[in-house]
Amino acid sequence: MKPTNATLAEYGTTIFEVMSRLARDHNAINLGQGFPEGNGPAPVVAAAAAALTTVSNQYPPMLGLPDLRQAVAAHDLRFYGLEVDWTTQTMVTSGATEALAAVLFALIEPGDEVVVIEPLYDSYLPIIRRAGGIPVSVRLAPPEWALPLDQLAAAFSAKTKLILYNTPMNPAAKVFTAAELGAIAALVQQFDTYAVCDEVYEHICFDGRPHLPLLAMPGMAERAIKIGSAGKTFSLTGWKVGYITAAAALIDRIARAHQYLVFTTPPNLQAAVAAGLNQGDDYYQGLTQEMQTKRDRLARGLERAGLGVLPAEGTYFLSIDVASTGFDGDDEAFCRYLTTDVGVAAIPVGAFYAGARPTGAFARFCFAKRDEILDEATTRIARRFGRA
Ligand code: PMP
Ligand code: GLN
């Protein structure tokens, strides 16, 4: 048989699926793959159910239902002061994953360099490479995960087509600062590149930190592409509804990839996400507050057991330093052991790196779960690894 595509063949099953399967097989509490517990906000779910009978179930427009595109534009104005023409500067995708793929396929020519920041989300590299791009990595180091500005500048060259980054950042739980984003914007202009901004956790920033879209910064209107996800903003990860805001000329090109990847996204879910985005500020504040309380609960529990917990400025993830458990092995061995023998699944942070594993071993936990579940997970971990 002739070989299948070599680039994709190189990547195994994603770590999220691997750990979720292991968690199911061992009946472990799954704090690995990032998904919130529960069924999502009741009014949004009810809107999806109602839309099955009130909205057409046939192909919606390729760029998305007008209601949702208008809601995306209104959301961008309300939270970021972005003036967006919904008819040309927004589009709906099948999750942020498809948005990322459509954007990368639309922009990258074989041989283009793409600046990425490690640790990085797992779908980035296979798609960049499948599109013929050459990833150029800049590494952040725990516990601060500060952006090394000299290394960032060194990563850009005349061959750079775009930078792809994620804030708030999975799995580092870092929120990029205005200074870091300003440095990115300056390089994007200097090297005449694009910026693909994965902002799926835009409403999960803690301790009063603002979420700053690059798109709202000076000089970025024609260059930055903002990606959001209803999966994260409404705790509905199974729906796979994403949205993009960008200059009209870019949306036009991204749509050319989108139309051949999926063409469209289920219309009832689009209608419901429009209703979701149009909810009052209290919904968004509630989400941030709820996640912050859960972060504190899990962090306190793990710290009480004597474990080294890294700061979490945003997202619904926090990581521990495996060295603080006394476990003899790397992060992957630790996460497997934790799942099979301790009954709590986690994700090895080393899985978010392109090349050589980073120094140190860290395990990522998702805290978007009921308090009882977080407490039981903490109890199990403390029983096995507790030092306090
Ligand atoms: N980017 C990041 C950083 C994520 O954590 C996720 C989570 N799944 C995605 C993109 C994909 O989002 P979606 O489920 O909307 O495809
Ligand atoms: N974004 C989720 C995480 O980081 C997983 C998404 C997926 O499983 N594809 O855990």
Structure description:
By secondary structure, this protein is α/β, with parallel strands linked by helices. It contains 15 helices and 13 strands. The strands form three sheets. The protein has a seven-stranded mixed β-sheet with strand order 2-8-7-6-5-3-4, with helices on both faces. Strands 9-10-13-12 form a four-stranded antiparallel β-sheet. The longest helix has 24 residues, at 281-304. The chain is globular and about 55 Å long. The termini are far apart. The mean pLDDT is 97. It binds 4'-deoxy-4'-aminopyridoxal-5'-phosphate and glutamine. Glutamine binds at residues 14, 16, 33-34, 170. The site of 4'-deoxy-4'-aminopyridoxal-5'-phosphate has 14 residues, from helix 6.
Which characteristics define this entry?
globular; four-stranded antiparallel sheet; binds glutamine; about 45% helix; alpha/beta; 2 domains; Aspartate Aminotransferase, domain 1; about 400 residues; 13 strands; seven-stranded mixed sheet; Aspartate Aminotransferase, domain 2; binds 4'-deoxy-4'-aminopyridoxal-5'-phosphate
What structural class results from the helix and strand content?
Answer: alpha/beta
Our measurement of the CA-to-CA distance between the termini, rounded to an integer number of angstroms, reads 58 Å
Range of strand content: 5-15%
How many helices does DSSP assign? 15
Briefly, what CATH class of the largest domain?
Answer: Alpha Beta
Helix content: 40-55%
Molecules bound to protein: 4'-deoxy-4'-aminopyridoxal-5'-phosphate, glutamine
